[in-house]
Design goal:
This protein is α+β, with helices and mostly antiparallel strands. The chain has helices at about 5-10, 20-30, 70-75, 95-105, 140-155, 160-165, 170-175, 185-195, and strands spanning about 35-40, 40-45, 50-60, 85, 110, 115-120, 125-130, 130-135, 175-180. It contains eight helices and nine strands. Strands 1-2-3-4-8-5 form a six-stranded mixed β-sheet, sandwiched between helices.
C-alpha cells in the first residue's frame, strides 16, 4: 500500500487532501512541504522559517506502542521551531481520538484555546471543526501560533484548491479566528479530569 492509501485509510475524508494536491505540494513547494516515509509511518509536514506544521502523521497499527511516534516528534522538535497541528475534537465513542490527544499531551503539546478553526470540507461540503495543538521551544504565544496558522492555511491548505477540487476553501479570516477572551475548554486538561 502506498503512502497516500495509508493516509486515506486512517484519516476521515473531510480531513484528507486529494492525492493530486499533495503531490503538487511536494513538487511545487518542495522547499517547504515534505514527506517522511518508512515501512511503518508516513509524516507529511510543512517547514517554514519560523515554524513547522504537521499535516498528517500515520503510524501503522502493528508498530504502535513502540515509540515510533515519539521518535518522529523528537525529529521535528530538534529543528527548534514551534510545531503546530490540527486534531479532531475528542469523540468518546472513538477511542482513537482520545489516544491521539493523550499522545500529544505526553509530547508536551498545548491546546490553543483562543484559536477557532472551522473550514468547509470540499469533499463532503460540511463544516469541519478542528482544534489546534502546538509545541514551542520558547513558549510562543497563542497569537503567534494564530499568525503562523494563517500563513500555513494560505500556503498549504488552499494552494491551487480550485484547480484540485473545482471550488475554493473559505478565506483564511473566515476559517481561522482568534479571540483571547474565548472561553474554550482546554481539551488536554479535560482529558486529565476524565482520567481522574
Amino acid at each position: 500500500m502506498n503512502w497516500y492509501e495509508k493516509l486515506k485509510q486512517y484519516f476521515p475524508i473531510e480531513e484528507m487532501k486529494s492525492r493530486e494536491h499533495m503531490e503538487t505540494l511536494l513538487k511545487e513547494k518542495g522547499d517547504v512541504y515534505f514527506k517522511d516515509e518508512g515501512p511503518h509511518h508516513v509524516l507529511m509536514y510543512a517547514e517554514f522559517p519560523s515554524f513547522i506544521f504537521i499535516d498528517y502523521v500515520y503510524v501503522s497499527a502493528a508498530s504502535r506502542g513502540q515509540g515510533l511516534g515519539h521518535k518522529l516528534m523528537e525529529k521535528m522538535k530538534e529543528k527548534e521551531k514551534p510545531i503546530i497541528l490540527e486534531v479532531e475534537p475528542v469523540d468518546y465513542d472513538d477511542t482513537d481520538t482520545e489516544k491521539r490527544l493523550r499522545f500529544y499531551q505526553r509530547e508536551g503539546f498545548k491546546h490553543a484555546q483562543s484559536i477557532g478553526y472551522t473550514r468547509k470540507s470540499l469533499a463532503t461540503n460540511e463544516p469541519n471543526s478542528m482544534e489546534i495543538l502546538y509545541w514551542s521551544p520558547e513558549d510562543a504565544s497563542e497569537e503567534q501560533i494564530y499568525e503562523q496558522m494563517k500563513k500555513m492555511y494560505e500556503e498549504i491548505h488552499t494552494y491551487k484548491d480550485t484547480q484540485f477540487y473545482g471550488k475554493s476553501y473559505e478565506p483564511v479570516d473566515e476559517a481561522i479566528t482568534y479571540d483571547e477572551d474565548k472561553d474554550n475548554d482546554d481539551i488536554l486538561a479535560r482529558l486529565e479530569k476524565e482520567k481522574a
